[in-house]
Amino acid sequence: MSRIVVITGFESFNLDLYRQAAQLAQSRCEGLDIQIFSDRSLSQEPEIIENPLKDADVFFASLIFDYDQVIWLKERVENIPIRLVFESALELMSLTRLGKFVIGEKPKGMPKPIKFILSKFSSGREEDKLAGYLSFLKTGPKLLKFIPAKKVQDLRNWLIIYGYWNAGGTENFAAMCWTIAEKYLDIKVGDIPEPIETPNMGLLHPDYDGYFTSPRDYLNWHQQEKSLENSLVAILLYRKHVITKQPYIPQLIRFFEQQGLTPVPIFINGVEGHVIVRDWLTTTYETQQRNLGNIEIRSLVKDALEVDAIVSTIGFPLVGGPAGSMEAGRQVEVAKRILTAKNIPYIVAAPLLIQDIYSWTRQGIGGLQSVVLYSLPELDGAIDTVPLGGLVGNDIYIIPERVKRLTGRLKKWINLRKTETKDRKIAIILYGFPPGYGATGTAALLNVPRSLLNLLQELEKQGYNIGELPEDGEIIINQVKAADEAIVNPNDDSNSTTTVNVRKLEEWLGYLLTTRIEKQWKSLTETGIKTYGDEYQIGGIQLGNVWIGYKPPLGISGDPMRLMFEKDLTPHPQYAAFYKWLQHNFCADAIIHFGMHGTVEWLPGSPLGNTGYSWSDILLGDIPNLYIYAANNPSESILAKRRGYGVLISHNVPPYGRAGLYKELMAFRELIADYREDPNKNEILREGIIQKIVDSGLAADCKFQEGKKLGIDFTTRKC
User: Fold this and answer.
1) Residue 241 burial (CB < 10 Å; 0-12/13-18/19+)?
2) Distance from C-alpha of 653 to C-alpha of 438, rounded to nearest angstrom
3) For the segment 579-611, what is each residue's pLDDT rounded down to a tens digit?
4) What is the pLDDT of residue 8?
5) CB contact set of 509 (below 8 Å; sequence gap of 6+)
6) Does residue 502 form part of some domain?
7) CA-to-CA distance for 450 and 218, rounded, in angstroms?
8) How far is Cα of residue 697 from the mean position of the Cα atoms in its chain?
């Protein structure tokens, strides 16, 4: 009995499909045993995999990146005769062996004829080689058939096997197993069908039977079937998820349409994300720049589709996908150049593929899942990451409320760009550093008054309505401070201070959230925090369409980090009223948190991966959040980015240097050093040292008690 052990990463939801395919393959091969596992089994019950590996003839793995899993597998599979590892950590891929074809830890590369053939399947750019390689999968085996060398034929078989795997689906997986069995396990199979092919890149819609190979063809069809008045949002999807008909894909497409957006769903293998964004998609900004002669991307296709935003459900880096997650494959600068040329929001939002919804909502997103969804895409410039769902058992479920948050934020970003500059409403939120020490209107390592004035002056130049702008930033700070400290008389209708009534807050929050706050604070109106009767003071001043105010106090003493982990805590009522007022009354098109740092990103909720119960998500809502942050504090700024949807605008910190000693103190130090070398010999220096103590003023700053005991009065004695 020959055994093939298959372990798939990021695909526990396809276990049933692969097991059905294994049964199909075994039905034609009595001497073949195929064992199917997922990376979740590696984490949760590795013992059920260990025994099958001991007697395996073939080890097959894909998308295995977790370090502990890689090390565990490496020790147990290195003696298996045939090892096929695709799109995984380099430490594991280096074990690949098929006959005489070996990758090894220091691969020597493919034979020169093969390299020449491969070069014809890509644009020649380094970042396009992986995408070109996938094109080579379809024709490469036919070309290599005519090269007789055994090593090349093993390479050809490796390409055939990978071609079946990449094609996806039950029939292709079974055919892959038959190919391995017949060519390397001496099992007679008979006729093996060619791969059932799907385009490497294409577009789909649940109301269309088939695939589109051009964005323009898709749009023409959509124009006939749907309304085209909405903003266009490109959605990058996993091709394998499309092939295996994952239910979340049509659900996601329909959610976008229900929320007033036109989705452009494009499926890719994973490595071609940058090709789609670079060549298939364009933007109003890019068109304007090209008309001015600034052509950054020369490979843009003629029928490229003009979109307003891009959403990737892939995660990983834009360039290379899973392969780009390895250091050798990273192309951050290429991704930066492409996204800068497009100049539209690039958001990663996806269901969790290796973590279940239960653990996410209770513990936050962690481990490799956080790297895929947050860390790697953030290097490219992804913003506003929204987890859309996750695993329930072995199935993918998306959460409609999270999709609504994604589409809501997309619409606000798009509307921000499309709104006339003079009509954009901006809220600027100031802080005080350190908190609680009367440092209102300051920030760590930032001159807030001057920086704020510079920002407002620049906004005015760009056409924003700033109203009458004071000439001094300190005047603005004082005006905001006065508005923030104003005492509200709830019985006086002539109050000019902005307030929110408790009934309005209840309406904005809804019953559930109101109840949570009331349970924590006992009363909505008796906290004593900027609350006057039934009114919450908001404060702030308005300059044209720009509102400037102070962030509310936390109302909780101690380290604000405890807010994240004490999940029963809530912000106090006035805090909630402040942000809800920005959403519903002022109707801000964008918020600017001015300086390091605020507190909204520290509010209770999921440590990573906002849910509908995370207070930072509730209070920021859909409003784009720009966050000015000191560049020397990435650990806390990343929290503002992930939990507070902050688009970080980093600023340099003031220059630092060692002050050192100066003037009399330098001479004083030298005298002391000389004296200490040999006090007896250098006793003559004693008088000079005493004089320097007087001259430098040290006698006044540091009382020399020992000197007094010896009768030395530095305040009167002159030497």
Assistant:
1) buried
2) 22
3) 999 999 999 999 999 999 888 999 999 999 999
4) 95
5) 517, 576, 580
6) yes
7) 51
8) 55
- 402-411 residue pLDDT tens: 999 999 999 9
For residues 329 and 270, what is the distance between their CA atoms, to the nearest angstrom?
Answer: 13
Structure tokens at 98: 């098929």
Say whether pLDDT at 338 is over 70. yes
Yes or no: say if 338 and 293 are a contact pair by the CB < 8 Å rule: no
Q: Are residues 410 and 441 in the same domain?
A: no
Domain CATH code at residue 387: 3.40.50.2300
Distances (CA, A) of 596 to 215, 439, 447, 697: 43, 13, 11, 38
* Average pLDDT for the chain: 88
DSSP character for 307?
A: -
- Report the alpha-carbon distance of residue 417 to residue 408 in Å, rounded: 15
- Pair 505, 638 in one domain: yes
Query: Which two tokens mark 80?
Result: 């298996």
| 659 found inside a domain | no
Do 641 and 697 sit in the same domain of this protein? no
- Tally the domains of the chain: 4
Taking the CB of residue 106, how many other CB atoms lie within 10 A of it?
6
From 358, 384, 418, give the residue that closes a domain.
Answer: 418
What is the sign, positive or negative, of the torsion defined by CA atoms of 482, 483, 486, 491? Answer: positive
- Which residues touch 681 (CB under 8 Å, ≥6 apart)? none
Query: Is 691 found in the same domain as 595?
Result: no
Chain centre distance of CA 273: 16
| pLDDT tops 70 at residue 105 | no
Tell me how far CA of residue 376 lies from CA of 90, 333, 353, 519, 559, in angstroms: 17, 13, 16, 40, 29
- Same domain, residue pair 17 and 55: yes
Per-residue pLDDT, averaged over 480-491, amounts to 84
Mean pLDDT, rounded, for 197-209:
94
Q: Are residues 408 and 451 in the same domain?
A: no
Residue type, 351: P
Alpha helices per DSSP H over 462-538: 473-485, 502-521
Residues 156 and 217 in one domain: no
Domain range enclosing 677: 664-709
Query: pTM for the whole thing?
Result: 0.87
Q: Are residues 506 and 401 in the same domain?
A: no
